[in-house]
Design goal:
This protein has 12 helices and 14 strands. It is of the alpha/beta class. The protein folds into 2 domains: 195 residues, NAD(P)-binding Rossmann-like Domain (Rossmann fold), CATH 3.40.50.720; 114 residues, UDP-galactose 4-epimerase, domain 1 (Alpha-Beta Complex). It has a 6-stranded parallel sheet, sandwiched between helices. A 3-stranded parallel sheet has the order 6-8-12. Strands 9-11-13 form a 3-stranded mixed sheet. It is globular. The structure holds serine.
């Protein structure tokens, strides 16, 4: 029986991951961890246990792990890349200080730990196309620094203490549920909102800026399937390249125009986001994830676009956003 704690459960990934884990392992077995000011509401709050679990507060996390006999922690607390550049000290405090707290608790109380890494763990001198699983990782953003250090720390705790640490390098995640906020890949979500609202989308990245992306249902499968994988098959742990599509703004715009022919986009590059995007891979190679734990994404650009537009039309007409 799994008893799961999700830290950062009201964020972009956590809010959907929590419901997905509850439907899989039972509502009572998945504790939704939150911080003050980002409390859960609606189904997330009503469907099962919730506890304040600030990743920077080790004793608070340890108390929750003990209270619910937690055996698996999904550590989803982080600042996204552009926010991390604006608040580098806080990004380190949450991303690395927080991870250290979780790993120490996992070592003492014997939990498995999932922590997302990112395409942001690569930098300018990483091969840009079909970026290999094992390659140069010298990012120059604080987000990337915390992700690379987090990968190393995860592997250290596995090798040194036997903590079952696992991780994927998520690409940009596209979802119609929670807004990302502060990421370099956020445009790939915002563009759909603009299209459904009938607005001209002001794209913060230049045409031809390729990055990997993934639809949220595939991202949730990646996290859960990796944690379910047979450890004997894992050659790698922290962290696996995973991707569904390598795209740039014109491709997204064209995919939307298949459904909304008069959709308009203009370019208003944001220098911070553009510089970050330029330092990340164009496309990553996820062969190791496929071979070692059967990673197999279901959505491509076409099916993501169809589903996003359909879901956002329902959501925006209901909420009148
Ligand atoms: N979505 C993240 C960001 O843009 C990358 O992993 O910051």
């Amino acid at each position: 029986m799994k008893n799961i704690l999700i830290i950062g459960s009201t964020g972009q990934i956590g809010s959907e991951l929590a419901l997905c884990l509850r439907s899989r392992y039972g509502n009572e077995n998945v504790v939704v961890g939150y911080i003050k000011g980002a409390e859960p509401s609606g189904e997330l709050l009503e469907s099962g246990p919730a506890e304040e679990a600030d990743i920077t507060n080790a004793s608070q996390i340890a108390a929750t792990v003990k209270k619910y006999k937690i055996d698996t922690v999904y550590n989803m607390a982080a600042l996204l890349s552009a926010t991390a550049e604006a608040k580098p000290q806080m990004a380190w405090h949450i991303g690395l200080g927080g991870l250290f707290n979780v790993l120490e608790i996992a070592r003492e109380l014997k939990c498995a730990v999932f922590t997302p890494s990112s395409i942001g763990a690569f930098g300018h001198n990483t091969p840009k196309d079909k970026t290999p699983q094992d390659t140069v990782q010298r990012p120059q953003t604080m987000y990337g620094v915390t992700k690379v250090a987090g990968e190393l720390l995860g592997d250290y705790y596995f090798k040194r203490f036997g903590v079952d640490t696992r991780s994927v390098r998520f690409p940009g995640l596209i979802s119609h549920v929670a807004h990302p906020g502060g990421g370099t890949t956020d445009y790939a979500v915002e563009i759909y909102y603009a299209a459904v609202k009938g607005e001209t989308f002001k794209c913060p990245l230049q045409a031809g800026t390729f990055m990997d992306m993934m639809y949220m249902p595939d991202a949730l499968d990646a996290a859960i399937d990796l944690m379910e994988a047979n450890p004997d098959r894992l050659v790698h742990r922290n962290s696996f390249n995973v991707t569904s599509m390598s795209i740039e703004p014109e491709m997204l715009c064209s995919a939307i125009r298949e459904h909304i022919p008069d959709f308009k986009m203009e370019y208003c590059p944001d220098p911070v986001r553009q510089a970050i995007a330029d330092s990340w891979p164009n496309s990553i190679d996820d062969t190791c994830a496929k071979e070692e734990w059967g990673w197999n994404p279901k959505y491509n650009l076409k099916s993501t676009t169809e589903n996003m537009l359909e879901e956002l039309k329902k959501k925006l007409s209901v909420n009148g956003l």
